[in-house]
Design a protein that fits this description.
Layout (H helix, E strand, L loop, with lengths): L2 E12 L2 E13 L5 E5 L6 H8 L7 E6 L2 E2 L6 H11 E4 L11 H11 L5 H11 L15 H13 L5 E5 L7 H17 L3 E5 L3 H5 L3 E6 L2 E5 L1
The protein binds adenosine-5'-triphosphate and magnesium ion (MG).
The site of adenosine-5'-triphosphate has 11 residues, from strand 2 and helix 1.
């Protein structure tokens, strides 16, 4: 699915003064791209940008187009919310697993909420795909950081979303575990023909994307 952002602005009020984080930011990722990366300094607005692009935070100004649908073309917030839940997802740096549910149940819950067919089968399949067949009944605290990250990835991939945003997905992992996880994630999005938009400080990781951007002074620059 292609993704277009046009003239996006986002500020936060800091006391009296607005802190402008995104300033007339525009970019386009064509359909057929599997992995795009965004690098930028700490505080440059990467997480803010992912929140805006994934529809969980509204920009102050600007337009987003997902595939052929402009965000402004949805007739209500509820209609966009339905679209968002079925098409856009974020893999957060802090996983956000539910502590009282086991690994499999964490993957299953959103599938059940959205009344997806074959929810249990799908959840099992994705636990296997991320290499956690032997960890399905573990509670989050019984899993290592890398395993928790894999559950978070399985949970997002199981939803069969068109665009997946990942905020520093390897930020908490050692180099080898992180590298393996990224190899797997890239393979999964390629096999399923999805778009993964990856935010990272890691230049080597960013350089492996098909399309590369840098967030500077509130705007995205295309990197060669
Ligand atoms: N809800 C908020 N209210 C006020 N200011 C905010 C809010 N969210 C973010 N900011 C500010 O906006 C700027 C960008 O924050 P953001 O989290 O997007 O940066 P980042 O590039 O993701 O940084 P990091 O690499 O450290 O995760 C920061 O200066 C931050 O303090
Ligand atoms: Mg961030």
């Amino acid at each position: 699915m292609r993704l277009i952002a046009k003239d996006i602005n986002k500020s936060f009020m800091q006391g009296e003064n607005p802190l402008e984080v995104l300033k007339n930011l525009s970019f386009e990722i064509e359909g057929g791209t599997n992995v795009a990366s965004i690098i930028g300094k700490s505080g440059s607005g990467k997480s803010t940008l992912l929140s805006v692009l994934s529809g969980i935070m509204s920009p102050d100004k600007g337009e987003l187009v997902f595939g052929d649908r402009a965000k402004s073309s949805f007739s209500s917030d509820q209609e966009f919310e339905n679209f968002r839940k079925n098409n856009l997802g974020i893999i957060f740096q802090q996983f956000h697993l539910i502590e009282s549910l086991n690994a499999l149940e964490n993957v299953l819950l959103p599938l059940k909420i959205l009344k997806k067919d074959d929810a249990l089968k799908t959840a099992n399949k994705w636990m296997d795909q991320v290499g956690l067949s032997e960890r399905k009944k573990h509670l989050p605290y019984q899993l290592s950081g890398g395993e928790q990250q894999r559950v978070a990835i399985a949970r997002t991939m199981a939803m069969n979303l068109n665009i997946i945003f990942a905020d520093e997905p390897t930020g908490n992992l050692d180099e080898e575990t992180g590298g393996q996880l990224i190899d797997d994630l890239f393979k999964l999005v390629k096999n399923e023909n999805k778009l993964l938009i990856l935010v990272t400080h890691d230049k080597d990781l960013a350089s492996r994307a098909n399309k590369r951007f840098s967030l500077e002074q509130g705007q995205l620059k295309v990197l060669q």
